[in-house]
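Board notes, transcribed. Complex of a protein with 2-phosphoglycolic acid.
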Amino acid sequence: MFFRKPIIIGNWKMNKNLDQALSLVKEIVTKDLDESVEKVICVPYLYVNEIRKILEKSDIEIGVQNMYFEKKGAFTGEISPTMLKSCGVKYVILGHSERRNIFKETDDLINKKVISALENDLIPILCCGETLNERKENKEKEVIENQIKKALLEVDREKISKIIIAYEPIWAIGTGAVASLEDAEDMCKYIRSILFKLYKDQANKVRIQYGGSVKQENIKDLMKQENIDGALVGGASLDVSFSKIINYKL
Ligand code: PGA
């Protein structure tokens, strides 16, 4: 068995003004956090520089929630991987269901972003997940396989172990309706089996997270599942009790 370091990632989405953002991060860094867990907070672009200075004194890494795939040029309103690198960003969420559904991001665009993030030494957190209707029609595996295969098109075998995959059923995001432990494990296991077909034993190195209504009360049981290596946390990362999710083992 490969050892996969657990990784807990907060996704703030479009929340908090600057003062609120800084005071939350200042409070989190005062907490004793489990060193055996990798921790990332994905913040709005605007706050990266100030938050990074606060996080420097901790082992929490900084991430963002999106990026464009080009390095520079006439792309009004976009942020490039090289810009992110120059500001000390290490992780980038790609293909979140809110980007797919509200901003109409396609699998092809997400694939370009994944390749560009890896080329520019950023760690992609690639999200996938089915809608409630797709699950009701028993299409969840087909949907996930399609999303993963398209997002990873032409991603090299040597690079795959850097990627983090977040399985986030859309019906569980922000709803309080967490997937059952069986369903969450079954889907993460299925994602690993897709990776096995594509990348053989490299699949054992890829960390797969569950996301969707993760909170202090359910994190421990989720993390006990064999194929769940971490969590992508939205709502419950917006206050200092996020530190208790990070410390799920203690
Ligand atoms: P949630 O969001 O934890 O608020 O359900 C998860 C996500 O969208 O990443």
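The beta strands are 7-11, 38-42, 60-64, 91-94, 123-128, 164-167, 207-211, 230-233. The pocket of 2-phosphoglycolic acid is lined by residues 11, 168, 173-174, 211-214, 232-236 (CB under 6 Å).
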